[in-house]
Amino acid sequence: MNITVFGVGYVGLTTGACLANLGHTILCVDVDESKIKILQSGKVPFFEPGLQELVTQNARKGKLRFSTSAEEGVKFGEVIFNCVGTPSNGDGSANLEYVFSVAKIVGEHLNDYKVVVNKSTVPPGTARKTAEIISEHNKNGVSFDVVSNPEFLREGNAIRAFNYPDKIVVGTASEKALPIMRKVYSGRMRTYLPIVETDWETAELIKYANNAFLATKISFINEISNICDRTGADVKIVSMALGLDYRISPRFLNPGVGYGGSCFPKDVKALIKTAHEKGYQARLLEEVDALNERQKKLMVTKIKERFNNDIQGKTFGVLGLSFKPKTNDMREAPSISIISELLAHGAELRVHDPCALEDARKIFNDKITYCSSAEEAALGSSAVILVTEWDEFRGINFSELGKLMKEKIIFDGRNIYEPELLKDEGFEYIGMGRK
Ligand SMILES: NC(=O)c1ccc[n+]([C@@H]2O[C@H](COP(=O)([O-])OP(=O)(O)OC[C@H]3O[C@@H](n4cnc5c(N)ncnc54)[C@H](O)[C@@H]3O)[C@@H](O)[C@H]2O)c1
Q: Global pTM?
């Protein structure tokens, strides 16, 4: 099938490359000329494991092309995926300006029956509004259908998440669009996987409910971790025991410095706002969001307490900057609030991340020192602060690292180290809810 994808961000490019790999012919369109130029030159403008190879292979086969022409995009695809960004507005609501601008362009250039698929995360009512906008600009009355097909991929694991999804949700009232959507996904690896076929609003809400639940699980274990800190219990063992209950499952039960990224913070806020607009106060979600903000500040509180509220002029080594491992994505990364707060208290920071140094430089310019290894970041520091749990930080040789530091203290924001082993190396260990 000929398929057009609007938006070549994490979702759009992964979707385009993976659909090309299933045998479809894909045209990816973006308004960002520089991104399209990079892609046309054969490169991927961000880091996602395996994506570069997939893009190269499929571009070579002529299965994947890139363009800035929206008109060409609308005319090309029998199916048009809308994967543009839906960032947060200042009041927490989702900014739908980009989604609707694609809808308008689709309406203006419709030349044949098309299935327009909203893949971006959007509040209930958006597919309905999309159909209205397309109709409004569709002067020749060409027939079309709108489908809600939210995306559940995880950055750092996006290709696997596409090929082995837990679920595919398709919201539409159209008998004509459904078989087309089944054909789009027919080659996806687990052919026995049922497609959750439902209406627009239910499909749209499934995505928000999914992310809100995972965010709630994280804020829940952070709450338990904070109670552990005050009672002498060890959260690692508490969460392990909780995870043994099959009704709970062990995933997303690791406490830390708060959740970040381009999805959880904005999606929780957007769901709260959507509920509010419909006259309902989503108190549980309000607290999930508020607790996450508190959690991001907790690491700095721990550091200040350890240094008797005087960190002016002290040097700290920060390990990990991206919002999670295996991505360079810094959107809403907890490292941003931790670093900003430490700078505000006069600390000096030496930072290392395997992938996100350039992205961090755009945020902090020359306010911090960028290092090419954990050892370089630790040099002369009063403590090392682990913020993002990249695999390479798990294998650090602490007896060597300690020799480079001024004081042997580690703040483990993700509980990846064993306190006893670090104590044996002469380190003082401060984790999240750990003994
Ligand atoms: N990143 C994730 O892990 C993830 C996972 C699931 C769902 N989502 C959702 O998917 C959507 C996209 O997320 P993302 O992380 O890929 O965003 P992104 O910011 O990385 O990419 C969005 C792209 O859309 C482009 N764009 C904006 N207006 C356009 C237009 N009119 N025509 C063509 N292109 C346009 C931008 O230039 C940008 O390249 C969001 O709604 C997000 O919530 C993201």
A: 0.96
Return the residue whose CA atom lies nearest to atom 1 of ligand 1.
Answer: 10
**Nearest-atom index, ligand 1, CA of 155:** 3
Per-residue pLDDT of the chain (435 residues; tens, 9 = 90+): 999 999 999 999 999 999 999 999 999 999 999 999 999 999 999 999 999 999 999 999 999 999 999 999 999 999 999 999 999 999 999 999 999 999 999 999 999 999 999 999 999 999 999 999 999 999 999 999 999 999 999 999 999 999 999 999 999 989 999 999 999 998 887 777 889 999 999 999 999 999 999 999 999 999 999 999 999 999 999 999 999 999 999 999 999 999 999 999 999 999 999 999 999 999 999 999 999 999 999 999 999 999 999 999 999 999 999 999 999 999 999 999 999 999 999 999 999 999 999 999 999 999 999 999 999 999 999 999 999 999 999 999 999 999 999 999 999 999 999 999 999 999 999 999 998
Would you give the distance in Å from CA 50 to the centre of its chain? 17
Task: Confirm whether 18 is a catalytic residue.
Answer: no
Going by CA atoms, what residue is nearest to atom 27 of ligand 1? 84
**Runs of H (alpha helix) within 351-434:** 357-364, 374-378, 398-404, 419-424
| CA pair distance 388, 391, nearest whole angstrom | 9
Show me where the domains of the chain are located. Answer: 2-198, 213-430
The architecture CATH gives domain 213-430: 3-Layer(aba) Sandwich (3.40)
3-state secondary structure of 271: helix
**Can 2-198 and 213-430 be said to share one CATH topology?**
yes
CA-nearest of 274, 264, 280, 291 to 91 is 274
Q: Is 31 in the pocket of ligand 1 (CB under 6 A)?
A: yes
CA atoms within a 13 Å half-sphere pointing along the CA-CB vector of 152: 22
What would be the CATH architecture of the domain defined by 2-198?
3-Layer(aba) Sandwich (3.40)
CA distance 281 to 272: 7
